[in-house]
Design a protein that fits this description.
Strand order of the largest sheet: 2-3-5-6
Distance between the termini: 44 Å
Structural class: alpha+beta
Oligomer: single chain
CATH topology: GTP Cyclohydrolase I, domain 2
Largest sheet: 4 strands, antiparallel
Radius of gyration: 16 Å
Number of domains: 1
Subcellular location: Cytoplasm
Order of helices and strands: EEEEHHEE
Enzyme class: oxidoreductase
Pfam families: QueF
CATH class: Alpha Beta
Protein name: NADPH-dependent 7-cyano-7-deazaguanine reductase
Shape: globular
Organism: Methyloligella solikamskensis
CATH superfamily: GTP cyclohydrolase I, C-terminal domain/NADPH-dependent 7-cyano-7-deazaguanine reductase, N-terminal domain
């Protein structure tokens, strides 16, 4: 994780956006970058949707697939989206259970940008015939905020 003193303060200091970058080998190696919120005095929701997230089962090494939805209310900082994409890609060869993966992504973003509010929904495809959905939030939903449904239906088989 990047030291806060090393975190970009402006577009000119970004190390990934606008530069050729490779996929980090692990989530620990990945660098999440931030940019100043152009509307820090305005309460609004930003959403990232990762419908093709993959990682590995830590026991079998088999791939796991999820649809992740990250909603946050920015304070001083925004997540720079290319760095988030590379961070998400870094899980492709990383082994962790669904719960660990979902919650650690949410906590990492909170550590980097200190949002007023964040929630992450991890909608995991079945493993061993059982789908696992994992939800985590940081902070309380700000009063007056429009918080839409995450738009991912519960898993349903052919029945």
């Amino acid at each position: 994780m990047a030291d806060k003193a090393d975190t970009p303060r402006s577009k000119e200091e970004l190390t990934q956006l606008g530069h050729k970058t490779s996929i980090p080998k692990s989530p620990e190696e990945a660098r999440l970058e931030r940019v100043p919120n152009p509307h820090p005095d305005t309460q609004y929701l930003a959403r990232f949707t990762c419908p093709e997230f993959t990682c590995l089962c830590p026991v079998t090494g088999q791939p796991d697939f999820a649809h992740l939805v990250i909603d946050y209310v920015p304070a001083e900082w925004l997540v720079e989206s290319k760095s988030l994409k590379l961070y998400m890609f870094s899980f492709r060869n990383h082994g962790a259970f669904h719960e660990e993966t979902t919650v650690s992504i949410g906590k990492r973003i909170v550590d980097e940008i200190a949002p007023a509010y964040l929630r992450i929904g991890g909608y995991w495809y079945p493993r061993g015939g059982i789908p696992i959905d994992v939800f985590w939030q940081h902070g309380e939903v700000p009063e007056g905020l429009w918080l839409p449904d995450q738009g991912v239906a519960p898993y349903r088989g052919r029945g």
